[in-house]
Amino acid sequence: MLTTKEKADLKLEGYIKQRGDNDFFSMRIVSDAGNMTSEDMMSLSKIASKYGRGYMSFTTRLCVEIPWIRYEDINNIREELKRANLVSGGTGNKLRPLVACKGTVCVHGIFDTQDVCRRLYDKYFLEETPAKFKIGLVGCPNNCAKASLNDLGIMGQVVPEANDTKCTGCGMCAKSCKMGAIRIYNSRAIIDYDKCINCGDCISACRMNAIDIKKRGLAIFVGGKFGKRYRLGTRLDGLIDVKDAEKITGDIIEFYRKYAMEKERFGDMLDRVGIQKLEEVIFGEK
Fold first, then answer.
1. Distance in angstroms (rounded) separating the CA atoms of residues 59 and 71
2. pLDDT digits over 118-157, tens only?
3. Cα(48)–Cα(80) distance, integer angstroms
């Protein structure tokens, strides 16, 4: 019979005790920014068939989970994962597996979500934090991977600007805008920035190239979480450059470590200490 500490140690390694009075575990394998090669999947298929019951599932953090693993097989599985260059884990009071949408290849993607996700993973994955800490990256305001429900959410955005010298007033930009942020007045496109969500659809729709990119960057959401007690992430002012994503992430993690109480989620800490203090650390005093 395993002790409570032994079970806790195995959980940190990605072997989670299954429900019921048995010695079975579910094993979690971390993906590469939500991706796996065909070779990776074949290796996991063999492990699932050999040590489990021949099937796999996928977690909300885009990890692969193989249930019905016996405790006595874990050492052999560790060796097989090592040979396949696969990593188990992703639990505990740490930076959890990062989630990114398919903005890298999606027609709506404003930035390379997979590349940025991999860089953040390489630098910060499994960093110790006061409580679990989740990062989600989305390529555009469609928000498929729910950036605002992560402790740190990163969203690609592009601010449009109408070019009066090229605009013919055809209205294609207005028709493409699902937010109703563009109207045609005196044969010219007028953008209502209070309604605009910076998705860039109007830029793609304009056949006259009359909608320019005023600014492109990343919107940052902080303090989001979901579950029994949920909190939508608070959006910080402005947009940051893609090249600054790693530094901003590091600054936010260090801020969390400095001001959080033990096992306090990031959003709860922000409600206690104030969002302004975080913005001062990241962007400097205004």
1. 21
2. 999 999 999 999 999 999 999 999 999 999 999 999 999 9
3. 12
